[in-house]
Design brief:
There is one protein chain. The chain has no helices and 15 strands. The protein is mainly beta. β9 and β10 form a beta hairpin. The radius of gyration is 17 Å and the shape is globular. The two termini are 32 Å apart.
Length: 196
């Protein structure tokens, strides 16, 4: 199991990797589990047709939708480098969202802002000027608009250790952290819960 999310008594969990996460076959399958009674009883399922390199890193519930997020491999790449977003109204029937408008990067963490909109955190490798130089990753944050398709992207700087975790504080602000970075959103308010 990779991660799980909770909404009241509903629990949704996902496998960390699809069957093609490491061998890069053209189509893979990823398992998920769903419980409507706080984990007493479970239903299992799987999503087929996953692109090569598929991995799920975070599961969350934002008002009216479940999200399972991670990354998959760009054609010819050997790591997950494009955002993966799976959505569901009931935690059982899942749809893979087109993410080309989100640009590149793998999503590593997720939370919600004070308005209940999803906040996704991830990174993408910066192109190297020389092949043998160290890999530098540029952090990103994507903030949803309350739908499953509307995302606004922001940059979180570049380093060898980009931000990789996110949490919503009791006052509604979002905290994004990495080994060297700490980002805190502005004071919560209507339409301002995701500002940095």
């Amino acid at each position: 199991m990779g991660d799980f999310g909770v909404n009241g008594k509903e629990v949704v969990a996902f496998g960390a990797a699809a069957t093609n996460a490491y061998d890069f076959h053209s189509s893979g399958t990823i398992p998920f589990w769903s419980s409507a009674d706080g984990g007493a009883h479970w239903m299992s399922g799987e999503i087929t047709g996953m692109p090569p390199g598929t991995q799920v890193h975070s599961v969350l519930y934002a008002p009216d939708h479940w999200f399972a997020v991670g990354g998959y491999a760009r054609a010819g790449a050997f790591y997950d480098s494009l955002p993966l977003v799976l959505t569901s109204k009931d935690g059982i029937h899942w749809t893979r969202m087109g993410t080309s408008a989100m640009d590149n990067g793998v999503i590593t963490a997720a939370t919600v802002d004070s308005a209940g909109h999803p906040v996704l955190v991830g990174s993408a490798p910066r192109p190297k000027s020389k092949p043998n130089t160290r890999t530098v990753l540029c952090g990103s944050v994507w903030v949803g608009n309350g739908t499953t398709t509307g995302w606004k992207r922001g940059g979180l700087g570049c380093s060898e250790d980009p931000p990789s975790a996110a949490v919503t504080l009791a006052d509604g602000r979002v905290l994004i952290v990495g080994n060297r970075d700490l980002w805190l959103s502005r004071s919560p308010g209507p339409g301002r819960g995701h500002g940095s």
